[in-house]
Amino acid sequence: MTKASKNSGEFDLIERLFAPYADPDTALNLRDDAACYTPQAGYDLVISTDMLVSGVHFPLAASPEMVAGRLVGSNISDLAAKGAVPVGCLLNLALGADWDEAFLTAFAAGFGARLQDYNMPLWGGDTVQSQRGQNAMVSLSVYGVVPQGTMVRRDGAQIGDDVYVTGNIGDGFLGLQHALNQSQGESLATFAQPDPPLAFGQGLRGLATSCLDVSDGLAADLDHLCAAAHVAMRLEASAVPLSKEGQAYIAQRPAQLMDLLAGGDDYQLAFTAPASAAAPLSRLAGETAVRLTRLGCVESAAADQYRAVFIDQMGENLVLERRGFQHF
Length: 328
What we know:
Layout: H1 8-18, E1 43-53, H2 64-82, E2 85-95, H3 101-117, E3 122-129, E4 137-147, E5 162-166, H4 171-181, H5 187-192, H6 198-203, E6 210-213, H7 218-229, E7 232-236, H8 244-251, H9 257-263, E8 269-273, H10 278-287, E9 292-299, E10 308-311
Parallel strand pairs: 2-3, 7-10
Antiparallel strand pairs: 1-4, 2-4, 5-8, 5-9, 6-8, 7-9
């Protein structure tokens, strides 16, 4: 995490707060300009990165623990969706003007705890100071490995495949409301400290035909799978798995299900698999303590209809005014 031009204050910060979570061999004790990692023979390296911006991906007044938890969780979910085993990461920080010593100390502790949860050492990164008036930004690049040729891709869905999702949908959206309103609720933990089903994702190698993590919103992310494979999906809206809080949210106004389908930030896995994989998937879910729900199936579609269609209990298509988070 060093550059020759950095002042001694940054070197001291790195040594005190982040070096304890580094792999001394690959990261070279965080005292070099690069890390050096040699993948095991017969394995592919899986790489992903995400950037979180204050006021966009977490509230301006977010706690350092929330910033760290969301940063690690949102990136680990990408490795989970590829079936990868984490091996290391690079951390980049553009410090907010109010991110003082106490904030950074708490951030580093929360960040390190999440890395240890996933057995993922720090390899390095960079630290800069954002200018006054600019939002803080945090970015993590994660590296994982899979046996050669086994990474689960986005573009493999086949007509007739079943469509599945793990966990609950909508708690990320509800948790964000709690965070913005500074209120309490069980879903707040889902938003603040997302915990993607990493072991389950690794078990999808050889079973799933396509997979991604639910980050932008279930509807939008399933659309991504459809577009990548040139197919459509027919899904039962009533099958979407909800927590008790999610069920209560739509109890008085069923139309609010649309908020949960498009809300995002769930960091669960949405994937497709052939019918022959149903029994192995059920066993995998039991072994990894993951809630697994079949939503529907993959269908053929015309070129302008590559998307996921949710059907209500009357057999009518749900019209979603918004399908997910728009990055631009």
